[in-house]
């Protein structure tokens, strides 16, 4: 027992450094990872899409996409993976780590930036640094896709209105021949200033093992 | 409703009746003075008036209320009033009695709190709130009682006839943080929402604990120390759970009841807001009757029903409920503070014991701090987002005591508790200290500690959208990572709620169309519409209606709008459109820019409401068959379908005319028909194609392109409309009414408007209309004012080729490619 403990800790050490998770959390997530992948080394889109709890999520596609997005791996790469390993899985998850009392102001700021970047990347599907109206519309459409017919029609209008809002708040003195191509990251940051991202975008990664009790549900 | 009922009822009631049928009537009295006949309600009404006036006076000067919170000022005002009453009567006739407070003043405040409760925030922090409310309050009660008792034993406050149990009783009534005081003070401070909900939620929920503690210790005091054994204590603990959870459950049931009821009040819309208040009050009274926690009951009633009743009821009813809720709550709050002040000016209740009073003050402060810090320390080990140190300080400092404590203190039984008056005066001192002193210092403290404030701005649409994305992301990540967390639970609850509760409690018609994002969108639209109307009225609506430039914009905008939704209308409108876009390139500089800007500003909204409104108000007064009738259940004037239709058609027609005539403006007025006719026929294809390309562009690439033209009037540089206005003015066409311009196209163009009119006939009821129209209320109507940026897209396009096309336009397309206006019968020429 003791030997395996140290071994796994050693194995997880660099993951811990990279992602900031604790050993227990990593172990839990690894279990979950194996469960999702069916004990394979890597996980594919299908694996994630088959999670039953996700079935009702309107933006499922975008979220799953984020897992396979190279931009979310902090390595300045673009493009997307076909399959991701545990490390990539963890990296994506690490965006959702909650801040602790010990986190300093700068760390908070970086966390905030990362979280925002994650959301931004989710919308910026073509990775050109801006969320164009086209992309944003698609996002809103998906978001409202569970609202029935009204969602389809309303989504467009809402996306447009939201886009105009962004344009008007960020570029109040635009020259007439300027063209607002879309939301840049700076603007995105600016708009969502009020959302207190760093204190809200996180979930609880339990130290305790809960996967066993979830087994039946997730495989059913 | 005022605290005077009791005194007056003691006084000579029914005295007034004697004057009516006294046996010794010698003659028929013409006028009699029957003060006693009306005394009670009269005094009540007077006090309400006085309290209202007090608030008005206090609020008149914001320099004062910025420093001293309103509640403190109201109490001080109460001191003065009380002094006056005392000076006149030599006895305090008016005090806040527990009956009045608990039955007539408190319920509406709590109902208001529950109804406007930010549910997500509240339930999200439920754990922490419960810990503070239950354990914190017990801790406060016990520590205060025991410490005072200890000090008493130590001889710190002289000779007092108070036993341990009575100290604990006193501690329990002092323990609860008062919701009224907390709301009053924190509302003005604007701390961040989590902090607010923690303090506020605690103050609401700890009532259950206070009531139980108070009742239990009251019973213990009656029983006497020797009678209390383990069984009684266990009973007390059980009663706590029964009281708290029973009260909440009762409130929940009543909430469901209200929701169900509003499902079927369609035909009695006028009284449906009443149900909410009556049932809320019944929830309160029922809980009181069953000796459950009445406050918890009414809180949960409000919390549960808010979503469903807001969806079920007509929009008017919802605003009625909201508004009435605020009126009642605000009024009660004012009364409570005023009477708290008045109650102090009464010699009979004041018993001074320096040791007791000062020690109480000290202990409640110290123990509050200790309690909050200790509990937060425990909570922070489990909370996802820990509560920071500064927030803890504010939470501790925000432990204001208020009228609830005073009401409970007055309810003490003098026979059992010898020092009741000392307790009352101590309670009053504590209340004054916390509300006035802590209330005043709260704001500087918050500023000094740099507590994170709440964002003052409303959520913008994009934030709302983003919030939603956010929720889904969090849930999904929890799902993927296989954690059962907060979000998971919430998602499951939402799902359940969506599927079952909404199904049961909501009208089927509204179930589909409700969505948070939609509602914000809808609200923004409404707001714009309102500002538009206001703008129109401010500028004098007649002139506004006649302003032809407005019509062009209207028209064009409408065109854009409908091109989104109904392409066929667009087809009909295309020539007008072409005209407008063509016109935009007129290079004549503008003089009337400002005027135009205002028009444009007003323009941003669903113009039909506004025109309609304006028309109803000003234009058609003479013509419409205004049925002045009194009805108790309907208050809308003139809802006759045909009439509305007629008005609408006329509006549209006149609009079209003015539009036409405005277009004519390019050409000299006299020769207009010939000139334009000839030109028209030549250039029509050209204009069309131009328009086609434009609309294609706008439809395809970027929606904002279609905004651009309507917003372009804003840019002084790229501005087009203003120029046109002047140009036309220069051409000498001031009044479209003199333009013989009934054109043959009109019949073709009317159908779309009629179609529109059909939709619009329902617009008298905004909610319906909103439902029908919201989906395709296009964004270009929204928030056009600040959209310089949006102007860019089209302008850039326009300006880019402006130099090139300018000449071409001037040469080839001088007049708009609009249909020629033969001087024929124009009906509806009453502009």
Automatic annotation (TrEMBL), chain A:
One of its GO terms (cellular component) is cytoplasm. GO terms for molecular function: calcium ion binding; protein kinase inhibitor activity. Residues 111-146 form the EF-hand domain. The keyword Cell membrane applies. Keywords: Calcium, Cell membrane, Cell projection, Cytoplasm, Differentiation, Lipoprotein, Membrane, Metal-binding, Myristate, Nucleus, Protein kinase inhibitor. It is a lipid-anchor. GO terms for biological process: cell differentiation. Belongs to the calcineurin regulatory subunit family. CHP subfamily. This is Calcineurin B homologous protein 3. It comes from Lates calcarifer (Barramundi).
UniProtKB/TrEMBL annotation, chain B:
Residues 62-448 form the Cation/H+ exchanger transmembrane domain. The keyword Ion transport applies. It is a multi-pass membrane protein. InterPro entries: Cation/H_exchanger_CPA1, Cation/H_exchanger_TM, Na/H_exchanger_3/5, NaH_exchanger. Its main location: membrane. One of its GO terms (molecular function) is potassium:proton antiporter activity. One of its GO terms (cellular component) is early endosome membrane. GO terms for biological process: regulation of intracellular pH; sodium ion import across plasma membrane. Coiled coil: none annotated. This is Sodium/hydrogen exchanger.
């Amino acid at each position: 027992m003791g030997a395996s403990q140290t071994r796994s800790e050693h194995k997880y050490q660099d993951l811990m450094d990279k992602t900031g998770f604790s050993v227990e959390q990593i172990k839990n997530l690894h279990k979950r990872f194996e469960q999702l992948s069916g004990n394979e080394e890597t996980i594919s889109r299908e694996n994630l899409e088959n999670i039953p709890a996700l079935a009702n999520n309107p933006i499922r596609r975008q979220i799953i996409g984020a897992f396979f997005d190279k931009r979310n791996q902090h390595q300045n790469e673009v493009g997307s993976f076909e399959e991701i390993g545990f490390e990539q899985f963890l990296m994506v998850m690490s965006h959702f780590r909650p801040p602790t009392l010990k986190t300093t102001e700068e760390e908070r700021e970086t966390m905030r930036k990362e979280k925002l970047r994650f959301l931004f990347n989710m919308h910026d599907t073509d990775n050109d640094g801006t969320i164009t109206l086209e992309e944003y519309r698609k996002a809103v459409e998906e978001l409202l896709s569970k609202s029935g017919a009204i969602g389809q029609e309303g989504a467009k209008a809402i996306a447009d209105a939201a886009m105009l809002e962004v344009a008007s708040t960020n570029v109040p003195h635009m020259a007439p021949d300027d063209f607002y191509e879309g939301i840049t990251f700076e603007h995105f940051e600016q708009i969502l200033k009020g959302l207190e991202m760093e204190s809200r975008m996180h979930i609880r990664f339990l130290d305790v093992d809960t996967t066993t009790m979830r087994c039946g549900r997730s495989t059913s | 409703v005022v605290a005077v009922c009791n005194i007056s009822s003691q006084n000579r009631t029914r005295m007034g009746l004697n004057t009516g049928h006294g046996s010794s009537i010698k003659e028929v009295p013409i006028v009699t003075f029957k003060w006693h006949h009306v005394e009670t309600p009269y005094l009540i009404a007077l006090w309400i008036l006085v309290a209202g006036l007090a608030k008005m006076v206090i609020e008149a000067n914001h320099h004062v209320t910025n420093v001293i919170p309103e509640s403190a000022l109201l109490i001080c005002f109460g001191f003065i009033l009380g002094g006056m009453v005392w000076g006149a009567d030599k006895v305090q006739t008016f005090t806040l009695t527990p009956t009045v407070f608990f039955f007539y003043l408190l319920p509406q405040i709590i109902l208001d709190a529950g109804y406007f409760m930010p549910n997500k925030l509240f339930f999200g922090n439920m754990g922490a709130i419960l810990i503070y409310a239950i354990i914190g309050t017990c801790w406060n009660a016990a520590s205060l009682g025991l410490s005072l008792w200890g000090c008493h034993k130590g001889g710190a406050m002289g000779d007092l006839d108070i036993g341990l149990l009575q100290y604990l009783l006193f501690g329990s009534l002092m323990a609860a943080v008062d919701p009224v005081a907390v709301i009053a003070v924190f509302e003005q401070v604007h701390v961040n929402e989590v902090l607010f909900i923690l303090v506020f939620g605690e103050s609401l929920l700890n009532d259950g604990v206070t009531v139980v503690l108070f009742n239990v210790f009251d019973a213990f005091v009656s029983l006497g120390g020797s009678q209390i054994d383990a069984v009684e204590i266990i009973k007390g603990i059980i009663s706590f759970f029964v009281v708290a959870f029973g009260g909440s459950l009762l409130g929940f049931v009543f909430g469901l009841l209200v929701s169900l009821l509003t499902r079927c009040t369609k035909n009695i819309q006028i009284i449906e807001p009443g149900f909410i208040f009556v049932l809320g009050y019944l929830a309160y009274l029922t809980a009181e009757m069953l000796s459950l926690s009445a406050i918890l009951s009414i809180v949960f009633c409000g919390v549960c029903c808010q979503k469903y009743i807001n969806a079920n009821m007509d929009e008017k009813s919802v605003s009625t409920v909201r508004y009435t809720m605020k009126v009642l709550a605000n009024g009660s709050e004012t009364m409570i503070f005023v009477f708290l002040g008045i109650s102090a000016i009464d010699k009979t209740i004041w018993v001074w014991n320096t040791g007791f009073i000062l020690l109480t003050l000290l202990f409640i402060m110290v123990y509050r701090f200790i309690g909050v810090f200790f509990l937060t320390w425990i909570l922070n080990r489990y909370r996802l987002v820990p509560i920071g140190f500064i927030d803890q300080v504010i939470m501790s400092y925000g432990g204001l005591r208020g009228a609830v404590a005073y009401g409970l203190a007055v309810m003490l039984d003098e026979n059992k508790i010898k020092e009741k008056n000392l307790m009352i005066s101590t309670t009053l001192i504590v209340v004054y200290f916390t509300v006035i002193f802590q209330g005043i210092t709260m704001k500087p403290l918050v500023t000094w500690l740099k507590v994170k404030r709440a964002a003052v701005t409303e959520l913008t649409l994009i934030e709302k959208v983003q919030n939603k994305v956010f929720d889904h992301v969090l849930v999904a990540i929890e799902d993927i990572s296989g954690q059962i967390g907060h979000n998971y639970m919430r998602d499951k609850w939402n799902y359940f709620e969506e599927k079952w509760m909404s199904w049961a409690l909501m009208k089927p018609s509204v179930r589909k169309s409700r969505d948070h994002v939609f509602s914000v969108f809808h609200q923004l639209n409404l707001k714009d519409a309102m500002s538009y109307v206001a703008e129109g009225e401010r500028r004098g609506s007649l002139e506004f209606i006649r302003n032809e430039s407005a019509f062009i914009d209207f028209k064009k905008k409408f065109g854009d709008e409908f091109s989104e939704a109904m392409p066929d209308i667009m087809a009909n409108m295309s020539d007008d459109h072409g005209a407008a876009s063509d016109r935009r390139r007129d290079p004549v500089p503008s003089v009337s820019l400002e005027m135009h800007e205002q028009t444009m500003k007003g323009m941003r909204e669903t113009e039909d409401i506004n025109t309609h409104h304006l028309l109803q108000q000003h234009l058609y007064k003479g013509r419409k068959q205004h049925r002045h009738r009194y009805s108790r259940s309907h208050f809308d004037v003139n809802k006759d379908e045909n009439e509305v239709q007629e008005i609408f058609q006329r509006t549209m027609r006149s609009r079209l005319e003015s539009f036409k005539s405005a277009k004519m403006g390019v050409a000299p007025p006299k020769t207009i028909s010939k000139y334009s006719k000839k030109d028209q026929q030549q250039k029509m294809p050209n204009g069309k194609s131009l328009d086609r390309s434009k609309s294609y562009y706008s439809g395809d690439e970027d929606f904002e392109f279609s905004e651009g033209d309507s917003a372009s009037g804003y840019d002084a540089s790229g501005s087009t409309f203003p120029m046109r206005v002047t140009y036309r003015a220069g051409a000498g066409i001031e009044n479209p009414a003199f333009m013989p311009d009934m054109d043959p196209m009109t019949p073709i163009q009317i159908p779309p408007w009629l179609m529109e009119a059909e939709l619009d006939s329902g617009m008298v009821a905004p909610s319906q209309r909103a439902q029908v129209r919201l989906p395709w209320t296009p964004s270009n109507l929204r928030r056009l004012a600040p959209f310089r940026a949006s102007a860019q897209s089209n302008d850039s396009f326009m300006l880019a080729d402006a130099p090139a096309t300018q000449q071409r336009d001037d040469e080839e397309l001088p007049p708009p490619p609009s249909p020629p206006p033969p001087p024929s019968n124009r009906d509806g020429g009453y502009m």
